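Handout for the seminar on molecular recognition.
Each group receives one record of this type.
Step one: identify the two inputs.
Step two: read the structure output and locate the region that could contact adenosine-5'-diphosphate.
Step three: write two sentences on what you found, then compare them with the reference statements printed after the record.
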Amino acid sequence: MVINLHNVSFKYGNMNVIQEITTGFKPGELVSLVGPNGAGKTTLLKLLSGTLKPSSGEIYIYDQLSYDLTPKNRAIWVSMVPQNPKLPDEISISDFVMLGRNPHLGLLQWESKEDFNIARESIFLTEIDYLSKRKLGEISGGEKQRAMLALAITQQSPIMLLDEPTSNLDISHQMKVMKIIKKIHEQKSEFGVTVLAIHDLNIAAQFSDRILLFSKGSIAADGTPKEVLTKNNIKSIYGSEVTIITHPEHGTPVILP
Ligand code: ADP
């Protein structure tokens, strides 16, 4: 397992947000976290990225206790695309994406040609080359989301955590970004890139190996899209009656309100 959680709980003040979660993620798994607003999905990603510490229980990343990791080691292993990060307005997109190489550089070491090539490749892959010289403060929400994904790809970490990476994107870029994520995951799967991402139900249905359905800080269902995204599960967790059909091309479930 790349990540192991053992009885992990988290509280904001005295409000239980994550309740005794025990699970693990294998190398190369493409996992989606789904569930109603407030179920604890973002909090779980923040616990995995080290932004938050569990109130109790342990998280292991490659068999090392997560909170024992140095920030540099953590950044070599784990990249994170947060949902609404505070970003500096003045930095250019190309410099921002280059920040992904920082964990790989020694003290006072400059980026090498190889580092620039890796960043350039991520910029092309996420189709933000036309923005390279622009500043972060001068681009749209969707463009920022792609710039953050480019930075995470540049980090070349074997674990990627993505908090709604397509939420600000138009449908064309949503599909493109999901294909990029899938490509990265497949290209590097010999190194074991594990992607954990929060998605809406239909994106999760189409693009995941495994889905964790969250409810009130616990995992209510865990399995393949077909196993998890059933009429009954959605009724009991979201309280909504939905129709589920099979995608004509992919054979995956499609949830219709
Ligand atoms: P999700 O990502 O599933 O929508 P979150 O993990 O963001 O859920 O939130 C889980 C719960 O924790 C919600 O009830 C939310 O209001 C609460 N919460 C999130 N962030 C904070 C915070 N910084 N302080 C206090 N409560 C928070």
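Reference statements: The first helix runs from residue 41 to 49. The CA atoms of residues 32 and 211 lie 5 Å apart.
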